[in-house]
Amino acid sequence: MPIMEVQPQCHVRPPRTRANRPEVITSRGRIIGYHEAGKEIRETSRLLGISRDTVRLWVRRYEEEGHVLTRPRPGRPRVTTPAAD
């Protein structure tokens, strides 16, 4: 089996929106963890310091779509490639 060389990335740009940041995705995972542990929306909201509407949104999306990732948004198409950034 050939050994693959991994090239270090010169520059890694952080996500442009708050919604795609790792800490936000992790927070959504905590919401789902509490939900699967049997916690109510009100209790999850209080424990995490997040509004009940937000907890409800992510629980519903997880149940409907099976993930807590941000949906693609409409807008102008990219002009550059991710490699060029």
From TrEMBL:
It comes from the Eukaryota. It comes from Homarus americanus. InterPro entries: Homeodomain-like_sf, InsJ-like_HTH, WH-like_DNA-bd_sf. Pfam families: HTH_28. The lineage of its organism: Eukaryota, Metazoa, Ecdysozoa, Arthropoda, Crustacea. It is found in: Nucleus. Residues 28-78 form the Insertion element IS150 protein InsJ-like helix-turn-helix domain. This is Putative helix-turn-helix HTH_28 domain containing protein 9. Coiled coil: none annotated. GO terms for cellular component: nucleus.
